[in-house]
Amino acid sequence: MNKKTKKKIEVLRKKLDSLRRQLAGAKKQTDEPGEVERLSSEVEQIEGALTELRNS
Length: 56
Fold this sequence. Notes:
By secondary structure, this protein is an all-alpha fold. It is 84% helix and 0% strand. Helix 1 (3-28) packs antiparallel against helix 2 (35-55).
């Protein structure tokens, strides 16, 4: 892995942590319909991108 790939992985991990915290909060407080689904979708996309980067 080169430096760019490592940096992308680091940034995606930080974003993933943030999204997971937001998702946990959204599950507790369901005042915005569709927010849980949107956040879940974003988490899945980032996890997929991380898997791709790790395998390359």
